[in-house]
Structure prediction request, 255 residues.
Amino acid sequence: MMSNIKYADLEYTVSAYRNFTLTEALRLWKSKYPEFVDFKKDVIKHDSHEDFGIFVHSVWDTITPVTVDEAFKETNLERRRVFFDCIGIRRIFSELNPEMLDRQVITKKRTKWDEDNNQEEYIFEDVYELYKIPVQKINPDNIDADVSVSWTTRRLFKDDDIYAVRCWCTTTNREYWIYVPKIACDPSFVNDRGNSFKPDAISAIAWTIRINIDKPERIYRQGDIIVVKVGEESKRTWPRHLTKDQYLELMYSET
Prediction:
């Protein structure tokens, strides 16, 4: 039996920001979670939320997700951050007509293991694309005037163009978009007054991996899990991003 709580009278927190109405929260959640089961798993975490989960399930199919256009029209920068977080990088980039800076197709030979744990090699083509959205498309003119805006949000909407790597899972062919900073696109780039900017999609994807082992022998990747095999000369170091050469030479298995 559902409770008699008037959910429309309450305020809601989405992506760590408070003061959303019920309608706003539902639309943001519908944007963030493809299916109700995903919403329930991530939001309805306690028994005390069970009745609210039942209510949301009853209206789930009637909820309209928020749009990228609505996100840009949001004048409060912290709320706008929540809109972008819920909409997701893939949808944002696909709707904003980003500029492709680099595309590389690499033929790889990798090792995998079958159900009987037998090792076998396979060859495939891996595609990496690097995109940019000019900061003018998402930077409101009054960002510096709003003293309530956090440092993180200022960094996201002010300091630089927005870059992302587009790649595909080698096992499922699922498409992924990953935010990267400008320095990841060209590690040799210093600033606009120095050497020219030469964006490289492989350098950018390599930057997303950090290890704390110097001179590793091999690197294994399973989704977001990175396993490093140490060599005889390996030493523990401060975490550092992989270089393009390390990514191409040391990656032994990807699943």
